[in-house]
Design brief:
The chain is of the alpha+beta class. The protein has one domain (5-80). It contains two helices and five strands. Strands 2-1-5-4-3 form a five-stranded antiparallel beta sheet. The mean pLDDT is 94.
């Protein structure tokens, strides 16, 4: 069971555009791999709950939780530990 969430990356604004393009033209897995490029293995932002908002879309793949909100233009990736 996972108890904590390590923030890997949070993108918004112009930085979100490439994520959105990949998500629109590819797959959820493609978008997750795009966000994983920021996973350097140093998890200094660890939280007791995930950072997804009530209107965010989310997708879990293994220990990764990808969240995004197309209406507000942001996406994030967390590692569940």
């Amino acid at each position: 069971m996972f108890h904590k969430f390590a923030q890997i990356v949070f993108l918004q604004g112009d930085d979100y555009a490439e994520f959105n393009r990949i998500l629109s033209e590819g797959s959820l897995l493609d978008a997750l791999y795009y966000l994983r490029q920021w996973d350097y293995g140093d998890y200094d932002d660890i939280r007791n709950s995930n950072s997804a908002g009530p209107y965010d879309d989310s997708w879990q793949y293994g220990q990764f939780l990808m969240t995004w909100n197309s209406g507000h233009g942001y996406a994030g990736l967390q590692l569940m530990i």
